[in-house]
């Protein structure tokens, strides 16, 4: 048994706090590295598109942000559900920490999509199926944040937030498949696991580098926010008291 991985080792807030503290500097370093490489490839090396000209370069921000907005919501809903079902404190704290970052990526996806839509469609916004469902995703994030902050009892807040997050998860496949289910202005997927990419390899490389940058950023910020939530919730424990005492003494 000692040789097996103990999957619940870092479910203890004190252990997660220590581990995340060691990882955060590396995650920020990866964020800077991947962002610099992605912007260099996307803005300087990638060729001008024959149809959209240089306006297409917004994909290096828009597409990774849109991907992150959907993935982070599912991850948030997963951890919220785990916290609700098993009364796992660490899982509920992770869900709360993910929500603001997911909302930020959703906003960036909508904002960058509007910038892309103006020269492409001739308008900043249309009530397109994908755009509308992505806007609903932003409202779900904001609703989750508002709900858990509005309830004073932490356990009840986590449970109510988990219910909203799990129910709202049905919107994610609607966003993804909206271009297939309905006749929309939004173009179909340029990258798929079941078919070859519909873009030049240099463009794909830039987009993937920016995606890695977004992932590293998300981990860094979520871990930092989780650590803050841990300190707030575990303030009455001996290990947090000693941690705060040590910080004041430095």
Provide an overview of this structure.
By secondary structure, this protein is mainly alpha-helical. The protein has one domain (24-244). The chain contains eight helices and no strands.
Write the topology of this structure.
Blueprint (H helix, E strand, L loop, with lengths): L12 H33 L13 H28 L2 H33 L7 H22 L3 H15 L2 H11 L19 H33 L4 H12 L1
Helix pairs in contact: 1-7, 2-3, 2-5, 2-7, 3-4, 3-7, 4-5, 4-6
Major pleated sheet: none
**Overall geometric form:** globular
Quickly give the structural class: mainly alpha
- For the termini, the CA-CA separation is 41 Å
- The overall pLDDT, averaged over residues, is 86
Q: Classify the oligomer.
A: single chain
Tell me the count of domains.
1
The proportion of residues in beta strands is: under 5%
Level of helix content?
Answer: over 70%
Order of helices and strands: HHHHHHHH
CA radius of gyration is 20 Å
Defining traits:
globular; disordered N terminus; 8 helices; 250 residues; mainly alpha; single chain
Write a compact overview of the structure shown.
This protein is mainly alpha-helical and 250 residues long. It has helices at 13-45, 59-86, 89-121, 129-150, 154-168, 171-181, 201-233, 238-249. It has one domain.
């Amino acid at each position: 048994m000692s040789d097996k991985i103990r999957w619940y080792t870092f479910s203890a807030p004190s252990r997660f706090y220590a581990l995340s503290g060691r990882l955060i500097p590396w995650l920020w370093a990866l964020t800077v590295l991947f962002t610099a490489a992605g912007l260099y490839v996307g803005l300087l090396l990638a060729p001008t598109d024959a149809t959209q000209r240089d306006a297409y370069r917004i994909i290096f921000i828009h597409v990774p942000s849109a991907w992150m907005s959907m993935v982070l919501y599912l991850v948030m809903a997963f951890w919220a559900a785990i916290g609700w079902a098993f009364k796992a404190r660490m899982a509920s704290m992770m869900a709360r920490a993910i929500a603001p970052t997911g909302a930020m990526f959703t906003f960036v996806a909508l904002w960058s999509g509007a910038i892309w839509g103006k020269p492409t469609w001739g308008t900043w916004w249309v009530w397109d199926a994908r755009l509308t469902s992505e806007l609903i995703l932003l409202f779900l994030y904001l609703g989750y944040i508002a709900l858990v902050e509005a309830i004073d009892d932490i356990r009840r807040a986590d449970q109510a937030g988990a219910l909203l997050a799990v129910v709202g998860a049905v919107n994610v496949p609607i966003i993804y498949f909206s271009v297939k289910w309905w006749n929309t202005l939004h173009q179909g997927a340029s990258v798929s696991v079941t078919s070859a990419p519909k873009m030049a390899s240099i463009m794909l490389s830039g987009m993937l580098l920016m995606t890695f940058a977004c992932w590293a950023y998300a981990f860094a910020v979520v871990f930092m926010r989780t650590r803050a939530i841990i300190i707030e919730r575990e303030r009455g424990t001996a290990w947090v008291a000693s941690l705060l005492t040590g910080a004041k003494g430095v």
